[in-house]
Amino acid sequence: MQQNMNIFQDKKIGIWGFGVVGLSALTYFDQQQVQQIEILDTKKITLPATKNHVFATIQTDASILNFLHSNDYILASPGIKLHNYQNFAYKFINELDLIYHKTHYKTVAITGTVGKTSITHLLEKILQYKYPDSIAAGNIGHAMLNLISEKNNHQSTDLRFLILELSSFQLQPIQKFAPDLAIMTNFFTNHLDHHLSVQEYFDAKCNIFKFQNNEQQALIPLNDDCTDIIMQNAPHKKSCNLFFATRPSQKDIEKYQDHTIYYDYDNKIHRIKNNLDEEIFDCDTLPASLTFAINWVIIVAASDILQIPLSIISLATQPIALPDHRLQKINISWNGSTFYNDSKSTVWQATLQAVTSIKNDQPIKLFLGGLSKGADRTPLMQALQNHAIEIYAFGKEAEQIGQLCAQFNIKYQIHATLDASFAACMKSLQSPHNILFSPGGSSFDLFADYKARGHYFTQLVENFCNKKSL
Known about the structure:
- The structure is a single chain.
- The chain is α/β, with parallel strands linked by helices.
- It has three domains: 12-93, NAD(P)-binding Rossmann-like Domain (Rossmann fold); 96-317, Mur-like, catalytic domain (UDP-N-acetylmuramoyl-L-alanine:D-glutamate ligase), CATH 3.40.1190.10; 328-469, Protein-Tyrosine Phosphatase, Chain A (Alpha-Beta Complex), CATH 3.90.190.
- It contains 15 helices and 20 strands.
- It has helices spanning 20-29, 61-70, 95-102, 116-130, 168-171, 198-210, 227-233, 250-255, 293-305, 311-317, 348-357, 378-384, 398-407, 418-428, 450-469, and strands at 12-16, 36-41, 54-58, 73-76, 92-93, 106-111, 135-138, 161-165, 181-184, 217-221, 240-244, 261-265, 268-273, 276-282, 328-334, 337-341, 364-369, 389-394, 411-415, 434-437.
- The strands form three sheets. A nine-stranded mixed beta sheet has the order 7-8-6-9-10-11-12-13-14, sandwiched between helices.
- α13 (398-407) links the parallel β18 and β19 (411-415).
- α4 crosses α9 (293-305), α4 (116-130) packs across α10 (311-317) and α11 runs parallel beside α12 (378-384).
- 43% of the residues are buried.
């Protein structure tokens, strides 16, 4: 949707946080005829050259209140907690509502607890194969506001897609944003260090559907836990398409007969529409182990909804690999053991998905750590007790992980650091294993982000194997 918005003319703009989003917001607002721009951040920053009057303020309790009072509009970076500042809610604006009014793209928005990065990456490649100007943004790819800056938002008569990976932080404040296709990959408890409750987290995710009209589409998971609840949050339920990992029950087929259902059976993806069950895609044509099977169901379903020829999927994905740190096989082995870097795993459900995706019969040595963000890891341990597995717990919550391992009779070791855990693992390695680094928690107890954590693990592996080979 494109609409001229001149509401910022001669206004005071506040930008709270000066990371990727804050910098892109400065670029965007500096092109508007604003009175001034104030940047609030916890650290001293160096400002780029600008056309408008721009100044920075160090964040303190007092400066936050002055910042909120003195600016007409405020754009806060995702992740900044605004619960205590609802008296100023009328001033808050967000990047999703801004791009909704300005972009020339058809929009595909993807959220969920697990899988959204891989799906966003692969959908971008598939859509670019047919529509080369398509682009990914949000949590992956470009900063969203950069796409609507004057120098980048050129007029185009060609169809192109904007594929957005969106977090609950980004979706929570929206008031207008409505994608042409909204996808929720799944929902698991997460981010309770930010959201006040599981319900608040769920409601934020469901905002992806909240403002859609009856011409826009939704793609949601079919399961007993949340399908009906999600559909209650989608205002136009007839536009909801469903996906499932395996063939749904006859009861579900009858219950949702007014909707299109996609599912995987024997590595073939089927579509049930108007009571007709049809095989539409053969996953054997895809690169081996490129991503998890359920992700392909979502990708094929999205392509079908967007009327992309499904034959393109195999062509578009043959020369590419997923981004690093997603069940990434490290190109080195040690005495028959294989190493996997799955540092992107920041929730326990992703770890379980990684464990069950390793198909060989070798036992697993699993590194667990990071911050749980209020989530309960008990279901993970319940599932892992049936696997040939040993756990190496590291970091701030290692003791908690160890206690759960003991409760479910899983062999484990506890270490303060990843270095110590890795050294202990390699010392105990007497036969070929799958060495899986899939922490199941956020990285911030020991590392700057999951990428730094994954790079560090990969370096540990390479240093060990190269040293032993000398």
